[in-house]
Amino acid sequence: MSGIRQFRWADYDRVVAVWRESGIGVLSRAELEAKLERDPELFLVAESGEDIAGVVLGTYDGRRGWIFRLGVHPGYRRRGIATRLVAELEKRLHALNCPRINLLVLPDNDAGLRFWQRLGYLPCPDVLCSKPLPARIPNNLSS
Ligand SMILES: CC(C)(COP(=O)(O)OP(=O)(O)OC[C@H]1O[C@@H](n2cnc3c(N)ncnc32)[C@H](O)[C@@H]1OP(=O)(O)O)[C@@H](O)C(=O)NCCC(=O)NCCS
């Protein structure tokens, strides 16, 4: 594997392919643009030659770090790539003085749960609650 680095837009189609192969929901370009305005250094890819082998999307809200959409292409699994992606993300969050990292795993994702526990991420009893908000009215239409 060539290394871990920050996402570049030229990676987008290959990142989407990794997410699709990993059964992970794809972030649209518009969603990613909004994320990259805040903390672009926390969206990482693992390169192998011309391939994107893995991807992880981190965020920091000023109090907690969050890890989302970790995926490694099936052809590159069990080579330590996800471990290296998470280690680099942890290093970057630590540099921001982030004291704790959270993440969500579907309860039937046995491999994912084993992976996270191996890295020291332990299940909590909290239940995720969620509510969608209505789309924001563009400024030029609101008056
Ligand atoms: C989970 C996932 C990211 C792991 O990627 P990876 O690069 O293969 O992981 P690593 O090689 O760094 O694995 C590190 C350790 O985690 C554990 N692990 C990883 N995959 C595992 C699996 N399928 N079953 C059991 N344990 C597993 C092992 O202990 C492994 O060490 P070992 O290979 O020496 O036994 C990858 O399987 C994937 O993309 N899965 C689909 C998407 C997903 O579930 N993402 C996480 C959702 S929160």
Automatic annotation (TrEMBL):
Gene Ontology CC: ribosome
Keywords: Acyltransferase, Ribonucleoprotein, Ribosomal protein, Transferase
A GO molecular function held by the record: acyltransferase activity, transferring groups other than amino-acyl groups
Pfam families recorded: Acetyltransf_1
Domain of life: Bacteria
Entry-linked Gene3D superfamilies: 3.40.630.30
PANTHER family: AMINOALKYLPHOSPHONATE N-ACETYLTRANSFERASE-RELATED-RELATED (PTHR43877)
Protein name: Ribosomal protein S18 acetylase RimI-like enzyme
